[in-house]
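Observation: inputs received (chain + zinc ion).
Thought: call the complex predictor directly.
Action: predict_structure
Action Input:
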Amino acid sequence: MLHLYDTATRSVRELALREPGKVSIYLCGPTVYGPAHLGHGRATLTYDILRRYLEWTGLDVRLVSNVTDIEDKIIERATREDRPWDEITTECEAMWFRAMDGIGVQRPTDIPHATEYVKQMIELIGALIERDAAYVTDDGVYMDVESVDDYGALAFQSLEDMRAGGGDRMVVGAAQKRHPADFVLWKFTHCEPTASDPSWPSPWGAGRPGWHSECVVMSLDLLGEGFDLHCGGQDLRFPHHENERAQAVALGKTFAHHWMHNGFVVDAEGEKMSKSIGNVSNLLDLIEHYDPRAYRLVLLQSHYRSPVKMGQAGIDQAVASLAGLDAFASRAAAVAIGDSDPAVIAAFRAAMEDDLDTPKAMALVFDTVRAANSAIDAGEAAAGSLVGAVMEICSAFGLELSAGGSDASDDVLAKASALDQARADRDYVAADAIRSELQADGWNVETTKDGTTVRR
Ligand SMILES: [Zn+2]
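Observation:
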């Protein structure tokens, strides 16, 4: 069974399932006010890999991931651009899924929107007030974190430490808060709603919900109490996840059984991805300029809890590795694929069940490719089962290998032959120049003893 690091207990432990055969997962989704960034891509790819692996083992996965379509940043942008707020959210949500489709992230099984859950959020806030876990001030309704015994379980900080540190001073209405860590559940809007600045009626005054309530009502509504896994980026651990959990605990509800957080994406110091990309943190730009599978491979070769350096060298290496895997798939197309080699599959499973050790699993893939190549060279019968194992693991990872040729134009193919000619003439300066030119146009260039191939 899968063992995963659980942030709440700070230990690797078995992901015990509430219902045998079924996995319930909640992933905090995007706030739709701008393009999807590399950090978003890391989170969605991490959980896409987890989901595909669980499905590969035969489990039935329900993955709920919300869309936050009420938030200050959306309203700020709508007001600045004098546009209806829902025009921005609709546009940005479409852009988000374009990016997700581009990097091969499967759609969540459920995609609830905050705007669809305002009534339930109001009910939740009402219930918290009734239990003395929330209070009303001049500018909104706040959660009383001191009413939650183990507040700080995900922050790894006690309430005393938070008070000493001054807590979150940025929150409006901080002067009226009883504790610096108290957070807003409902924000009053003191003006009439406009096309850019919406508000909803509530028993305490017109306004809009704070960010931390939506995931509580959506996860409990769609997955039910005690669902298996709550996940998201490391930046969501505190305050967002802590605050989600606090509301559920205050209502006496069993919340997520297990908490999973992925690491950050960091810039490789002194390295720029490419001048032609411009804003390299934008996912749509990245997949426009590089093989869209490259980011998945970079992440597979890193542990999900470690920070990932994103830079030109890392992407180039991933692109080259993919070219190698594609070349293998194309060579293996001539081999009769057998049942996957059981030893390889057992090693794959062992790596994954140990807190998703995908770097170990990818190393196994490359080792198996080498073994399969040797077996093909030697005409051994074992080749088929080794090829089968590579294909099965890549498919479980959502890494589609291309056995087909390239879709390069005559002009590009002419450049590839010019590169081979330059190499034959031992004019390596010219060969490198042609290679750089092709790469700058977004081609993956692979030169072997049989010549140069180009792929997108
Ligand atoms: Zn959330």
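Thought: report the result.
Final Answer: Confidence is low (pLDDT under 50) at residues 167-172, 270-279. The first helix runs from residue 38 to 56.
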